[in-house]
Amino acid sequence: MTTQANRPMRRSSTAAGKRGEHIAERYLTDHGFTIIARNWRGKRSRHEIDLIVRDGETLVFVEVKSARTRAFGDPATWIGPRKQRAIIAAARDYLSQIPADSGPVRFDAVLIEPADSDGQRAVRHVKAAFVEEEGGFVGQNPCGPD
Description:
The protein is an alpha+beta fold. The protein is 27% helix and 36% strand. It has 2 helices and 6 strands. Strands 1-2-3-4-5-6 form a 6-stranded mixed sheet, with helices on both faces.
Protein backbone atom coordinates (compact mmCIF):
# COMPACT_ATOMS: atom_id res chain seq x y z
CA MET A 1 0.00 0.00 0.00
CA THR A 2 1.39 3.36 -0.99
CA THR A 3 0.53 6.26 1.24
CA GLN A 4 0.89 9.98 0.68
CA ALA A 5 3.77 9.99 3.17
CA ASN A 6 5.63 7.27 1.25
CA ARG A 7 5.48 8.93 -2.17
CA PRO A 8 8.16 11.60 -1.62
CA MET A 9 10.53 8.95 -0.24
CA ARG A 10 9.96 6.71 -3.27
CA ARG A 11 10.49 9.53 -5.74
CA SER A 12 13.55 10.68 -3.84
CA SER A 13 15.09 7.21 -3.78
CA THR A 14 14.24 6.59 -7.45
CA ALA A 15 15.79 9.93 -8.43
CA ALA A 16 18.89 9.14 -6.36
CA GLY A 17 19.19 5.75 -8.06
CA LYS A 18 18.96 7.35 -11.51
CA ARG A 19 21.64 9.89 -10.54
CA GLY A 20 23.84 7.02 -9.37
CA GLU A 21 23.32 5.16 -12.64
CA HIS A 22 24.25 8.31 -14.56
CA ILE A 23 27.46 8.67 -12.52
CA ALA A 24 28.28 4.99 -13.12
CA GLU A 25 27.62 5.30 -16.85
CA ARG A 26 29.87 8.34 -17.12
CA TYR A 27 32.59 6.57 -15.11
CA LEU A 28 32.46 3.48 -17.32
CA THR A 29 32.50 5.40 -20.62
CA ASP A 30 35.40 7.52 -19.32
CA HIS A 31 37.24 4.23 -18.72
CA GLY A 32 36.69 2.88 -22.23
CA PHE A 33 33.52 0.82 -21.78
CA THR A 34 30.82 0.90 -24.45
CA ILE A 35 27.22 1.19 -23.25
CA ILE A 36 24.95 -1.45 -24.83
CA ALA A 37 21.76 -0.99 -22.77
CA ARG A 38 20.42 0.90 -19.75
CA ASN A 39 17.78 -0.40 -17.35
CA TRP A 40 17.22 -3.56 -19.39
CA ARG A 41 14.33 -5.77 -18.31
CA GLY A 42 13.67 -9.09 -20.02
CA LYS A 43 10.44 -10.85 -20.76
CA ARG A 44 11.12 -13.85 -18.51
CA SER A 45 13.00 -12.29 -15.62
CA ARG A 46 11.54 -9.73 -13.26
CA HIS A 47 14.87 -8.11 -12.43
CA GLU A 48 16.25 -5.10 -14.23
CA ILE A 49 19.90 -4.92 -15.23
CA ASP A 50 21.14 -1.39 -14.57
CA LEU A 51 23.76 -1.31 -17.33
CA ILE A 52 24.94 -3.73 -19.99
CA VAL A 53 28.33 -2.71 -21.36
CA ARG A 54 31.25 -4.00 -23.40
CA ASP A 55 34.75 -4.10 -21.99
CA GLY A 56 36.65 -5.06 -25.12
CA GLU A 57 35.24 -8.44 -26.12
CA THR A 58 33.63 -9.06 -22.73
CA LEU A 59 29.92 -8.46 -22.22
CA VAL A 60 29.47 -6.99 -18.75
CA PHE A 61 26.28 -6.86 -16.68
CA VAL A 62 26.59 -4.02 -14.18
CA GLU A 63 24.70 -3.54 -10.93
CA VAL A 64 24.87 0.04 -9.63
CA LYS A 65 24.45 0.85 -5.95
CA SER A 66 24.41 4.47 -4.85
CA ALA A 67 24.65 5.47 -1.19
CA ARG A 68 23.57 8.88 0.04
CA THR A 69 24.66 8.01 3.57
CA ARG A 70 26.55 5.26 5.43
CA ALA A 71 23.50 4.62 7.65
CA PHE A 72 22.77 1.37 5.80
CA GLY A 73 26.39 0.21 5.58
CA ASP A 74 28.70 -0.30 2.65
CA PRO A 75 26.82 -0.40 -0.69
CA ALA A 76 28.88 -3.47 -1.66
CA THR A 77 26.99 -5.47 0.95
CA TRP A 78 23.66 -4.64 -0.72
CA ILE A 79 24.37 -7.09 -3.55
CA GLY A 80 23.75 -10.30 -1.64
CA PRO A 81 23.21 -13.83 -2.99
CA ARG A 82 19.51 -13.29 -3.74
CA LYS A 83 20.23 -10.13 -5.76
CA GLN A 84 23.10 -11.88 -7.53
CA ARG A 85 20.83 -14.77 -8.55
CA ALA A 86 18.25 -12.29 -9.88
CA ILE A 87 20.88 -10.48 -11.95
CA ILE A 88 22.19 -13.78 -13.31
CA ALA A 89 18.64 -14.84 -14.27
CA ALA A 90 18.10 -11.54 -16.09
CA ALA A 91 21.47 -11.92 -17.81
CA ARG A 92 20.49 -15.40 -19.01
CA ASP A 93 17.31 -13.90 -20.41
CA TYR A 94 19.33 -11.22 -22.23
CA LEU A 95 21.84 -13.77 -23.56
CA SER A 96 19.01 -15.94 -24.91
CA GLN A 97 17.97 -13.04 -27.15
CA ILE A 98 21.34 -12.28 -28.76
CA PRO A 99 23.71 -14.33 -30.97
CA ALA A 100 25.41 -17.19 -29.14
CA ASP A 101 28.91 -15.89 -29.97
CA SER A 102 28.59 -12.81 -27.74
CA GLY A 103 31.96 -13.47 -26.09
CA PRO A 104 32.86 -13.88 -22.43
CA VAL A 105 30.49 -12.56 -19.75
CA ARG A 106 31.24 -10.82 -16.48
CA PHE A 107 29.19 -9.40 -13.59
CA ASP A 108 30.49 -6.09 -12.21
CA ALA A 109 29.34 -3.69 -9.53
CA VAL A 110 29.72 0.07 -9.56
CA LEU A 111 29.37 1.51 -6.08
CA ILE A 112 28.75 5.22 -5.65
CA GLU A 113 29.91 6.39 -2.24
CA PRO A 114 28.22 9.14 -0.20
CA ALA A 115 29.47 12.66 -0.89
CA ASP A 116 32.50 13.78 1.10
CA SER A 117 32.82 17.17 2.79
CA ASP A 118 33.60 18.75 -0.60
CA GLY A 119 30.49 17.23 -2.17
CA GLN A 120 32.51 14.74 -4.24
CA ARG A 121 31.27 11.16 -4.61
CA ALA A 122 33.86 8.41 -5.01
CA VAL A 123 33.16 5.60 -7.48
CA ARG A 124 34.29 2.03 -6.80
CA HIS A 125 34.25 -0.31 -9.79
CA VAL A 126 34.40 -3.95 -8.73
CA LYS A 127 35.15 -6.17 -11.71
CA ALA A 128 33.85 -9.75 -11.44
CA ALA A 129 31.97 -8.81 -8.26
CA PHE A 130 30.27 -12.20 -8.46
CA VAL A 131 30.35 -15.15 -10.83
CA GLU A 132 28.21 -18.00 -12.02
CA GLU A 133 29.97 -21.26 -12.68
CA GLU A 134 28.69 -24.31 -14.52
CA GLY A 135 26.75 -26.50 -12.14
CA GLY A 136 25.73 -23.76 -9.77
CA PHE A 137 26.00 -20.33 -8.32
CA VAL A 138 29.24 -19.18 -6.77
CA GLY A 139 29.16 -15.79 -5.05
CA GLN A 140 32.16 -13.61 -4.35
CA ASN A 141 32.73 -10.74 -1.98
CA PRO A 142 31.89 -7.56 -3.90
CA CYS A 143 34.27 -5.67 -1.61
CA GLY A 144 37.25 -7.35 -3.25
CA PRO A 145 39.84 -5.51 -5.36
CA ASP A 146 38.82 -4.17 -8.74
